[in-house]
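Batch queue: ligand-bound targets. Current item pairs a single chain with guanosine-5'-triphosphate. No template structures supplied; prediction is de novo from sequence plus SMILES. Inputs echoed for audit trail.
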Amino acid sequence: MQNLAPETDAGAGLAAYSTQDLYRELLGRFHEDPNRDGLLSTPKRVERAMADLTRGYDMNPTEILRGALFDVDYDEMVIVKDVEIYSLCEHHMLPFFGRAHVAYIPNGKVIGLSKIPRLIEVFTRRLQVQERITTQVADAIQEAINPRGVGVVIEARHLCMMMRGIEKQQSSTVTSAMLGVFREQQTRSEFLSLVRQHHSGNL
Ligand SMILES: Nc1nc2c(ncn2[C@@H]2O[C@H](COP(=O)(O)OP(=O)(O)OP(=O)(O)O)[C@@H](O)[C@H]2O)c(=O)[nH]1
Ligand SMILES: [Zn+2]
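Prediction returned. Tokens below.
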């Protein structure tokens, strides 16, 4: 499809076109030939890939945690650390990736361990900023089990700062959200020092 819409009236009437048509149009705008062999199936592949990378919009934290909240007599810190994350920055739609560390001190209930990475997926598999993922994960845990406190730290590297723009290859971004007792110096320090232990430092 050629000249699907003039660049100036982006959005107007585009709903009439399939997602694959829109990607085919974009290939042309990138000065490519969408009909050459290697690109023929690309719109279909990109559609699938983008649906996968944004699947978090269709995921519901409450549903994920349902059935995996347990009454346990344990009141020390639980930490799930070094969870790999991949997300897309909402400004450039380029990936950022790294690790998330999540901790909480229960108040009668704990969360099934595998559900913590699943919860992280809900919020990373969207167009995001790192800060928002960090607070959304903390808030979701707070809401689910009302613990004595929650801490979330995310370390990530953003391709929009690496392969374009400022082109800094070594910088990483660290964000944190601390709720309840994690706002107190001692708990925060214990969490951060446990996160640092045995951490290779390589994202
Ligand atoms: N706070 C925050 N900023 C982000 C995140 N991901 C990307 N950004 C920033 O969003 C900003 C967008 O700035 P603009 O000046 O509008 O865009 P730009 O001209 O492409 O900026 P440069 O990247 O500096 O070239 C940039 O500074 C990005 O580094 C994120 O997760 N959190
Ligand atoms: Zn970006």
